[in-house]
Design goal:
This protein is of the alpha+beta class. It has one domain (3-185): Nucleoside Triphosphate Pyrophosphohydrolase (Alpha-Beta Complex). The protein has helices at 3-12, 18-33, 85-97, 167-185, and strands spanning 45-55, 60-66, 71-73, 75-78, 103-104, 111-117, 126-137, 149-156. The strands form 2 sheets. Strands 1, 4, 5, 6 and 7 form a 5-stranded mixed β-sheet that branches. A hairpin with a 4-residue loop joins strand 2 and strand 3 (71-73). It is globular. The mean pLDDT is 93.
């Protein structure tokens, strides 16, 4: 994965608030510091790619009940041999949902987040520097729950806060609602 292209992508992102701006700065510093910023072998942490998948009418988002973290979150995971962050997020969206027709709505970053991952028998505690992209999919197509999840569900945007208090997910909800309002106004 190319460091300069990744930094250019990060530089173009417009954070929603001061908290997201701080995390964006942390991600850029991490990418500048480590040559293997995308590799799971980087024990301090690594980039991850997530997909905020919304229904075609923008009324629902696809959430996974994560097996390890025991909460509802967006689809996403580790960068494997992907050429770039968008491809990593796209691959994760398809693998974790069973959907084949997931469409990126932009090649620009939708959201960023930095979160701690507790130690486990396979790896020490570290950070995920998560880069998230916006996708769309048909919510009438059957979903396939992957081994990483306990469940998958299309959840009405306005009801997501009933399932999770994860601020990073709620920030993406606010962004989705804001974009939908802008689209309706045009």
């Amino acid at each position: 994965m190319n460091r300069e292209l990744t930094l250019q992508l990060l530089e173009r992102h417009q954070p929603a608030d001061a908290h997201e701006a701080k995390m964006l700065d942390d991600i850029k510093a991490f990418v500048r510091r480590y040559d293997n910023f995308h590799s799971r072998r980087q024990l301090a942490g690594h980039l991850t790619g997530s997909a905020w998948v919304v229904s075609e009418d923008r009324t629902h988002a696809l959430l996974t009940y994560h097996g390890k973290f025991d909460c509802w979150v967006q689809l996403g995971g580790h960068v494997e041999d992907d050429a770039d962050m968008l491809r990593a997020a796209w691959r994760e969206a398809c693998e974790e949902s069973g959907l084949e027709n997931v469409t990126p709505l932009s090649d620009q970053i939708f959201d960023v987040d930095v979160h701690a991952i507790p130690a486990n028998p396979k790896e020490p505690a570290h950070f995920h520097y998560d880069i998230r992209f916006l996708f769309s999919a048909d919510r009438t197509v059957p979903l396939v729950v992957s081994s990483e999840s306990k469940d998958l569900a299309w959840v009405e945007i306005e009801k997501i806060a009933e399932l999770t208090s994860e601020e990073s997910v709620l920030r993406m909800v606010r962004k989705t609602v804001s974009q939908r309002i802008v689209q309706l106004g045009n």
